[in-house]
Description:
Strand content: 25-35%
Helix content: 25-40%
Oligomer: single chain
Low-confidence stretches: 1-53
Amino acid sequence: xxxxxxxxxxxxxxxxxxxxxxxxxxxxxxxxxxxxxxxxxxxxxxxxxxxxxxxxxxxxxxxxxxxxxxxxxxxxxxxxxxxxxxxxxxxxxxxxxxxxxxxxxxxxxxxxxxxxxxxxxxxxxxxxxxxxxxxxxxxxxxxxxxxxxxxxxxxxxxxxxxxxxxxxxxxxxxxxxxxxxxxxxxxxxxxxxxxxxxxxxxxxxxxxxxxxxxxxxxxxxxxxxxxxxxxxxxxxxxxxxxxxxxxxxxxxxxxxxxxxxxxxxxxxxxxxxxxxxxxxxxxxxxxxxxxxxxxxxxxxxxxxxxxxxxxxxxxxxxxxxxxxxxxxxxxxxxxxxxxxxxxxxxxxxxxxxxxxxxxxxxxxxxxxxxxxxxxxxxxxxxxxxxxxxxxxxxxxxxxxxxxxxxxxxxxxxxxxxxxxxxxxxxxxxxxxxxxxxxxxxxxxxxxxxxxxxxxxxxxxxxxxxxxxxxxxxxxxxxxxxxxxxxxxxxxxxxxxxxxxxxxxxxxxxxxxxxxxxxxxxxxxxxxxxxxxxxxxxxxxxxxxxxxxxxxxxxxxxxxxxxxxxxxxxxxxxxxxxxxxxxxxxxxxxxxxxxxxxxxxxxxxxxxxxxxxxxxxxxxxxxxxxxxxxxxxxxxxxxxxxxxxxxxxxxxxxxxxxxxxxxxxxxxxxxxxxxxxxxxxxxxxxxxxxxxxxxxxxxxxxxxxxxxxxxxxxx
Length: 714
């Protein structure tokens, strides 16, 4: 078992930011990386990305069908916005090609939901161009209910605010035709009609041949799912919705081929349309708004070996003896890891920081884990169930979020373990009370860190003060969690600006089958390309109470995770037994799991370089092929290969098979398994890979190619 690094390793990662300040400044000027708050977006979006000209050369002229805005290329791509009078429609073009278009007939480009009806945009009534802004008045099918649009061009983007006036306005929606832009990406974890995000993740988002359609009526800053109000396309257009409100989002779920983006409880849909030359540049534009990670919260050693968490091994049936025996078995089998973390099943009640009677001597348990040369951690949550002793304390002292409908009472929410209140982190006394209990557990039982598993707000609750938003609570949660070692499992904070915190992002639970493994890969690509570079799949083998994974699923999952930034483990390759079933694995399973971890260890120095790059520039560590090869049209459909940095192409087996097709873009590639050089662009059909073989390729014409070949082949 690999020894955990001492505490200074964590400080090294945190203080390394000062070593790259100059580099950050230079990169910011080139790619638009800047640390700005979401509230600053409106002004930043209107004036163009950081480093771009604030006032692009633009002019407007009437056309036979309406009006057209032309923005000169200059240092950017240049684009045109064509506005048709009736039916009202906005088409964005670059180089004479449509890159984004509103869906005028399905049912309309824009709509406002009123208390008793829906107002659909029908025709352009009037327009004016003044001081660099195009103002539009758009009629609807409801008499006297016009929409007003303000379009402000910038370099490589334009800001578009759609407003419906009146006290009865409940939401404003934009409808975009997806096919005109090629494939769509972004969004984050996708809720679909095929059990996404748990067993399904469309990649691209518009590809529903093997995945479900995306429909999420609770898309917002307080969601448990990791979601972002940002989408980008194969045509190098993108949409960012600037809001802290709850949204409803459908990507082909309500109307085939139509993206519906709806902002609730407001009369304005405020969004930015990006117009770039490559999808990667659209991503960089968005990162210029969100800000880049201030650090990696995980120290180097957490990128080198797995964290082991007890959840999928035992679920809540865990006991002190089972936990210690599980950890010792993994250690004695020579499978590395830096931490053993005790998940759900230890609290006397949810929200009480006391052990139940399954753990007669928690300090002895902690000592036993530390004796293995590893760290010890605990699962915790902000939910406090109604039967917890802490619930009555928190209720009496006013430490819980209040009900939106009755502020004199705590807000009661349902979660997967019952009914609970949520600690209100905006209340300084409540925050201190909660944090003091965490520190007390650390001191009493020698706990090194925590896995935070919670929501920090719920839409049914009221904020501590009226000016606080759901997004503000994400920051409050992040600031609180940042006081502790998150042990390589990170925390699920999201929404525009959360990228700056630099947490590891562990995706939502997956089941234990092949479809879940494929969803895990696609979901890491989705999360990476909305600004969260430090990604890990769910626990290797899955953790959603499915029957324990087969040997093949467990091994192939471990092999895939070895080619990602971090490894997150639970199911022991020695065997597993829980309420969902039992499975025993053979010696080969143990050896292949050990081999996967060893591969990840050999890649660790390279991965750590990518971590520093992500902090400096926001560049994803795990990214789709088309980020580096935008002219390779085949790469836009590939959901089972990825780039790890610029120099590694991963193509592991993600099915019950011993062969697969591999697409290699242009360049010179070294086939690690076959010890040969392959020239791209090429498709390797029927590439043979038995259970011990991982299709892996090194880009030899990259700056890290030679060193990686040496590290992986000797």
